[in-house]
Amino acid sequence: MERLQHCRACLAPNPYLFLPMGQHPPANMFVRPEEHGDSQPAFSLNTEVCLNCGLIEIADQIPADFFRHYLYVPSSATTMHHHFDKLADVLGEAADGGLVVDIGCNDGLLLTACKARGQRTLGIDPAANLADIAEERGVQVHVAYFDPDTALEVRDAHGPAQVIVTTNTFNHIGDLHNFMEGVTRLLADDGHFVVEVPWAKELLERNEFDTVYQEHVSEFSLLSLQKLGAFFDLELVDVHRLPIHGGSMRVFFRPKGLAVPSEEVHTMLREEREAGMLEPETYQHFAARIEAIRIQLLDMLSELKADGMKIAGYGAPAKGNTLLNYFGIGPNELDFLVDRNPLKQGLFSPGMKIPVRSPEAIESESPDILMVLAWNFFDEIREQQSDFVARGGRFLVPLPQPMLVS
Question: What is the pLDDT of residues 315-333, one digit of tens each?
């Protein structure tokens, strides 16, 4: 049973285990048709929390080089285009003509928006397949894992970064201290380090257990980020609340002594304390709620199937694979999944091996129910599926509580 000995942010010993979810294949390890009969590698998903800083975390067991070919791209969600447009404005103001470096730049969507505003940009990402897509957009990418050596290499070639940004990448990092050492080497003396991640407080309140998977090894509290930054003389000076991905935060670090923390930093730290994020009972209650949701969702699916309903899953996101594998929902419950990302179409979901098709299958196969696995984009999905709704189709939204929506 893989367990952490220390918190990866504040280094406090013995995180508290509160939701052991068994063995899971990597959540983006989709199965090719010719591999359908093969067994997949699986790793334990033991969700722990540091009661010193509120970091929710699992042991990092993904093999080295796993991210060199990656299947998630933000461009397939319209919501992300709008989100990154707004972020590009914020980064431009902070950079003031200096270099903007995006670590984990993926397919270059954010830096494309930055370039459109005349900003100097550079992406860093280990996934060569996605770097190719970014380069086609005119975004220069340094293909590598980010660490202190990569930071020095980039600084030598391009100079210091006025802004370093990382969006939904920080939660993938096994060794946060090594990563932060790289940040301090690359960042200008008066620079900004900007991190966007889901907020662990929202995860707890909205029962979002499925955002934990082998690639999301951490779900951050604001306190955990503040304590991590302090090891590197980086001060957490501001934070913005974001609706994206079921409740996120955009956190701003500056080298020590350049700015004082904003009122919002104090407010959110207080909210975390009041929510009991350092109390074991908070996590015991969370685990009990997840078990109740599992029973309720399986009962609903069983009843709908008994009534002769055809059910498909909408979205094949990594979080959906955590839910499917932990709850044991497979091809007997869901006839197929649909996803707008062409990299996933024609494959089978990890673990449960449900076929993934393009959204056109909703028209051709006429399911009665769409179970929304990409629940963080539900409003967008409902809008896109107006024809499905018009012919009487209903949505089954599993979280924060299983609910049928017509």
Answer: 999 999 999 999 999 999 9
Query: What CATH number belongs to 281-405?
Result: 3.40.50.720
Q: Going along 93-233, which residue ranges are E strands?
A: 99-103, 120-125, 141-143, 161-167, 187-198, 218-219
Half-sphere exposure for 172 (CA within 13 Å, toward CB)? 25
CB 218 within 8 A of CB 237: no
Within 13 Å of residue 98, how many CA atoms lie on the same side as its CB?
A: 20
**Neighbouring-strand partners of residue 165:** 102, 194
pTM above 0.85? Answer: yes
67-276 CATH: 3.40.50.150
**pLDDT tens across 50-104, in order?**
999 999 999 987 766 565 554 555 555 566 778 889 999 999 999 999 999 999 9
Structure tokens at 227: 């304590």
Instruction: Report whether 167 contacts 232 (CB < 8 A).
Output: no
Helix (H) or strand (E) holding 48: strand 43-49
